[in-house]
Amino acid sequence: MARKNARRSRRQAPSGAGRLPSPDARLDLTFYLKRPRRRRPGSAADIAELMHRVSRADLEAERRVAMKGTLGKIRRFAKRHHMTITDEDAARCRVRLRARRRDVERAFATKLRLTEIDGRACHHPTGRPRMPAELAAHTQAVFGLDQRPLRSRLRGHAGPAGDGGLLPSAIASLYGLATAGRGAGQCIALVEPFGGYSPDDLKDACAAMSLPVPQVVEIDVGHGRNAFGADAEADREVSLDIQVAAAVAPEARIAIYFTEKSEAGFADGIAEAIHDKTQRPDVVIVTWGEPEAFWPAGARGVVDGALADAVRLGVTVVVAAGDDLATERMNDERVHVDYPASSPYVLACGGTKLTLDAAGTAIADEVVWNDGVRGTGGGISDIYQVPSYQGSVALPPSLNDGKRRRGVPDVAAAAAETNGYRIRLNGADIVTGGTSAAAPLWGAFIALINEQRGQPIGFINPTLYRNPQLLKPITSGDNMDGGLGYKAGPGWSACTGLGSPIGAASIAALTAVA
Questions:
Q1: Which of 169, 436, 500, 506 is catalytic?
Q2: Catalytic: which of 237, 282, 323, 382?
Q3: Which residue in 241, 260, 263, 290 is the catalytic one?
Q4: Which domains does the chain carry?
Q5: For the segment 347-396, what is each residue's pLDDT rounded down to a tens digit?
Q6: pLDDT tens sequence across 418-469
Q7: Is 237 a catalytic residue?
Q8: In whole angstroms, how far apart are CA 265 and each of 137, 257, 258, 268, 307?
Q9: Is residue 105 within 8 Å of 113, Cβ to Cβ?
Q10: 326: closest CA among 104, 120, 479?
């Protein structure tokens, strides 16, 4: 997808000089509170603790007790500063407040200005807000003080359009996924910060695959919405996500969480999908990301907290690893992995290139996707330590500092435009790919496993790493860019992880997992 190249100033420039909003103008703020956990993310103790599953109702009850003191501080803060609590959600560790501009300025020791961007009035601080001392130790992030859109590098991972290609259902059949059912009774969540989709495109795509049109539920998070037609590349991303998921699990319900166009809005959307007590998805698919270094610490903390909750709730979160090779095209003589793919709480998906047999009905060869311009992301995290489930893997040292940390990705599937995914977009057939195709293929596959099991498999990473024979290792190729990157070989690689699914064998073993 299109890249944003701004690396320093991340806020979109205003169209004119700032002006003062009314002192009585009402602002909506969202406080995300720190979770009562202190273990290192991904450590053996951390994973073991999180793997003790709870229901959404039990988690909320447990958290109300654990966060009673913190919630009390927020209530006292709100009362002292004449703010009104409009929503208090202990499970999400989230409190929403409404306040007058003058009270917000006093509480956060800043001044707010009003400006217009893209036809929308946005307020923003003139200086860095100061977190009130009584809340600093308890607050992960505050959203709403600055309404200006971020010039983020957040982008989707759908490859450029190509020719020919295969229907997504045909690619699922090549992997033998269609033998696991059709996803009846399952809910798959997609989190989309940009773009939209056309129901007519989905209807035509399903007709071409001779599949029923799945039930689709749209959830607007904040100011997010189905913005089909505003950005053709983003629409390709969203349409690819939906049509691949529908091809693999046509009878599953697909819940699409349209979020605001920023890391903060995206973080809110991921948390919403994981904790949604109405749709109750057991699989959440995320095909957007950006290099770790560019994620605001507060928003990343909100996402990590929600992803840890997903493990406890038995929700599998599947994330695309990126399409810009090992460097993420940062041009800084370093390699980078994308977040949230690098989180220890997700199943990160890399990309491969398929060669078919003469009849075009079976995979003759599968290698790392690298066409010289685009290719699978992957590498070693700069932030997260080696998670316990990767403890027995021969992780390569980081090309940045020689240290071994969280390896990305965990698994892989077809992503190249060669023998790529033929989808419907704006009334026409196009062929595309990217790890944005691999992630929904894996996510919908897990929904099929859940259907067969009669209960969600949840955090699948430890099972896959204990049973690497369930996957086909990809031993040829690399994700190098300008000489920087990693090579595939026997076992796990920083290009395609443990490998791609082996159809019936993977299905039988994963269905039987206790």
A1: 436
A2: 237
A3: 241
A4: 26-143 (no CATH), 155-512 (3.40.50.200)
A5: 999 999 999 999 999 999 999 999 998 999 999 999 999 999 999 999 99
A6: 999 999 999 999 999 999 999 999 999 999 999 999 999 999 999 999 999 9
A7: yes
A8: 23, 11, 9, 5, 16
A9: no
A10: 479
